[in-house]
């Protein structure tokens, strides 16, 4: 949440640097929008800081209590009953093993990309012939829990032509390039190149 609330501040700052002359011309140095984004960020950052400190105090208390109990047990037990070195080594080894398992599970949850070649959906050898690109209600988001970066864009780029797209910072141009290159798969809609849906083609195509 802190990162989400910080993004508007950075965006406002970069936009203010670009339009500094216009801001001074209209005497808008004390802009209410900047005050609002700062207020939103300060509220989230404060609660994040307080929550972190609250959790840190309790975690330190629990850790010290557990360490004290284990130390008492090791001191009171006879030397032949337990080896202190094993008591320390085993938890460390288990922690390292659990980190490896966690990384494997993270890789397992990553969605698989499309195969390199889909035999039933291979285009003709000369494809693409025109280079016409059509976006039909294109929707792109980087994570299901994140907001849409591209929301229902529909347009056509004619073939055999150079097309330029002008947009403001953060409007999703880099995301559009990634979607055309299939680095990011669309969440909805279609991308057609010469009337072929590229989501149904292999990545090598």
TrEMBL record:
<dbReference type="GO" id="GO:0005524">
    <property type="term" value="F:ATP binding"/>
</dbReference>
<dbReference type="GO" id="GO:0016020">
    <property type="term" value="C:membrane"/>
</dbReference>
<dbReference type="InterPro" id="IPR050173">
    <property type="entry name" value="ABC_transporter_C-like"/>
</dbReference>
<dbReference type="InterPro" id="IPR036640">
    <property type="entry name" value="ABC1_TM_sf"/>
</dbReference>
<dbReference type="InterPro" id="IPR027417">
    <property type="entry name" value="P-loop_NTPase"/>
</dbReference>
<keyword id="KW-0067">ATP-binding</keyword>
<feature type="transmembrane region" description="Helical">
    <location>
        <begin position="61"/>
        <end position="83"/>
    </location>
</feature>
<dbReference type="GO" id="GO:0042626">
    <property type="term" value="F:ATPase-coupled transmembrane transporter activity"/>
</dbReference>
<keyword id="KW-0472">Membrane</keyword>
<keyword id="KW-0812">Transmembrane</keyword>
<protein>
    <recommendedName>
        <fullName>ABC transporter domain-containing protein</fullName>
    </recommendedName>
</protein>
<keyword id="KW-1133">Transmembrane helix</keyword>
<keyword id="KW-0547">Nucleotide-binding</keyword>
């Amino acid at each position: 949440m802190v990162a989400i609330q910080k993004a508007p501040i950075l965006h406002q700052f970069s936009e203010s640097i670009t339009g500094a002359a216009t801001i001074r011309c209209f005497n808008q140095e004390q802009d209410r929008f900047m005050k609002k984004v700062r207020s939103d960020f300060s509220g989230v950052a404060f609660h994040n800081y307080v929550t972190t400190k609250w959790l840190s105090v309790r975690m330190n208390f629990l850790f010290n209590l557990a360490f004290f109990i284990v130390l008492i047990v090791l001191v009171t037990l006879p030397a032949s009953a337990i080896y202190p070195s094993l008591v320390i080594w085993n938890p460390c080894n288990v922690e390292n093993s659990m980190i490896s398992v966690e990384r494997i599970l993270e890789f397992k949850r990553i969605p698989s990309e499309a195969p390199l070649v889909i035999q039933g959906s291979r285009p003709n050898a000369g494809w693409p012939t025109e280079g016409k690109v059509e976006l039909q209600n294109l929707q792109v988001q980087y994570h299901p829990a994140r907001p849409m970066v591209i929301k229902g864009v529909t347009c056509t780029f004619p073939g055999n032509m150079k097309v330029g797209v002008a947009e403001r910072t953060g409007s999703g141009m880099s995301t559009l390039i990634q979607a055309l290159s299939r680095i990011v798969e669309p969440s909805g809609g279609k991308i057609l190149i010469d009337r072929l849906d590229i989501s149904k083609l292999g990545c090598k195509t």
